[in-house]
Amino acid sequence: MRSTLGLGQMLAKRLLPLTLAIVVLLSVGVPVTFYNIASRNLQHTATVYAEELAERLREFVFTTPTLWKYQAQKYLQLLQQFVAHKELTSIDILDEAGRLIPDYNHSAAEAAVWWNRAAPLGSAPHPLQQPPDGYGPDPGEP
Questions:
Q1: Whole-prediction pTM value?
Q2: CA torsion 11→12→14→16, rounded to 10°?
Q3: Which among 22, 101, 119, 132 is least buried, having the fewest CB atoms inside 10 angstroms?
Q4: Nearest to residue 126, comparing CAs of 75, 29, 53?
């Protein structure tokens, strides 16, 4: 006659909470980790794009430092060249005081969709805060 001690059932009962914890951790932890990594990557890309646009604006601003805000047509040409082949939802250009400059904004149709309302942001210093390369005094000069 064969005798059963019930070790399998006892072990299954004790391992059930551990098994459930592992399943929950994997089903929640992996997507959350992926989301955090992807968000940081998108924020870095947005910052690189912002710095690239700021550099282009810096050259644009230093050609006419006092009237650059009123040259929206030239800015739109610069913006069309910049936006080509980039996945951007919106661009906002602020003046020295941090106010939005009219006609210097860009919003794609995707910006209005609910999942893009909290899209990663990138920023760069204002073009007037530092001259572009080749403009202004040399660093070695007093």
A1: 0.69
A2: 160
A3: 22
A4: 53
Element (H, E) at 8: helix 7-63
Higher pLDDT, 127 or 51: 51
Q: Which amino acid is at 46?
A: A
- The secondary structure of the chain in percent helix, strand, coil, rounded to multiples of 5, reads 60, 10, 35
**For residue 4, what pLDDT is reported?**
65
C-alpha 130/C-alpha 19 separation (Å) is 58
Instruction: Give 11-48 pLDDT, tens digit per residue.
Output: 888 899 999 999 999 999 999 999 999 999 999 999 99
pLDDT for residue 134 is more than 70: no
Q: Could you tell me the two tokens for 79?
A: 């913006």
CA distance 111 to 119: 9
Q: Where are the domains of the chain?
A: 14-129
Angle (CA) 121-115-111 rounded to 5° is 60
- Residue written as tokens 């004790």? 14
